[in-house]
Amino acid sequence: MWRPFLIALGLLTRIPAPWRGALATPRELGHSVLFYPLVGALIGALLTLFVILLPTGLDAGIKAALVGIVWVWLTGGLHLEGLADSADGWVGGLGDASRGLEIMRDPRSGPAALMAVTLLVLLKWNLARVAIASGDPAIWLIAPTLGRLGIVLLFATTPYVRAGGMGETAAREMPRGWAFVLAVGILLGAGGFGSGWVVLVAGAVWLTVRRAWMRRFGGVTGDLSGATCELVETSVMLAWVW
């Protein structure tokens, strides 16, 4: 049980973990996907602690910027990179799935990637500023958790269209039955915290994004799942502060 969790922790964060994806068996890699929301909750707990420890007299905008820096550092910018690659593949592929997937392999970032990341980070910064001013810490726990739950549900319901690599293995070996049980438990728990509206918005965004990936690429990749995480995370924050 601990190995899949530590694999998920090592893959999704910069927190030191003794086991990473390269050392995992296919079964462990598949089971590690089930722990993605728990890693999201851990990220949220660390962000909550960081917000609490910030000086009370500090400007909310500066606090939001610092939270954003810590957030990116904790995750290594993993999902932002996925968003950047997905934007390049979406625009550069011009509707051709194979061309778009090939562009996403290119480590260089094009104008679409720069615009997508800049706009999303700008929106997140403003949402974080409002959230900090409100003093409600629940958003820092719910947003990262539901964002990573979005990846779990993508792997459980969507074909993985890039052959080879850890992503394909994780999606193939993930226990789908347990993934759906996990999703129901998390969504009911989030709704129980008085965030039923947030869950509905996150679900609507996830369905829209999944449909877009299916129509444009015929499935999902690691980059597309990272982009999904960022979009769901941001939609949760937007719905919460609204």
UniProtKB/TrEMBL annotation:
Entry function: Joins adenosylcobinamide-GDP and alpha-ribazole to generate adenosylcobalamin (Ado-cobalamin). Also synthesizes adenosylcobalamin 5'-phosphate from adenosylcobinamide-GDP and alpha-ribazole 5'-phosphate.
UniProtKB keywords: Cell membrane, Cobalamin biosynthesis, Magnesium, Membrane, Transferase, Transmembrane, Transmembrane helix
Keyword Plastid: no
UniProt topology in membrane: Multi-pass membrane protein
A GO molecular-function descriptor: adenosylcobinamide-GDP ribazoletransferase activity
Family (UniProt): Belongs to the CobS family.
Cofactor: Mg(2+)
Designated name of the protein: Adenosylcobinamide-GDP ribazoletransferase
Known pathway: Cofactor biosynthesis; adenosylcobalamin biosynthesis; adenosylcobalamin from cob(II)yrinate a,c-diamide: step 7/7
Catalytic activity of the protein: alpha-ribazole 5'-phosphate + adenosylcob(III)inamide-GDP = adenosylcob(III)alamin 5'-phosphate + GMP + H(+); alpha-ribazole + adenosylcob(III)inamide-GDP = adenosylcob(III)alamin + GMP + H(+)
InterPro entries linked: CobS (IPR003805)
EC number assigned by the record: 2.7.8.26
Subcellular location: Cell membrane
Domain of life of the organism encoding this protein: Bacteria
The species this protein was found in: Candidatus Magnetaquiglobus chichijimensis
TM ranges: 34-54, 61-80, 109-127, 139-158, 178-207
Lineage summary: Bacteria, Pseudomonadati, Pseudomonadota, Magnetococcia, Magnetococcales
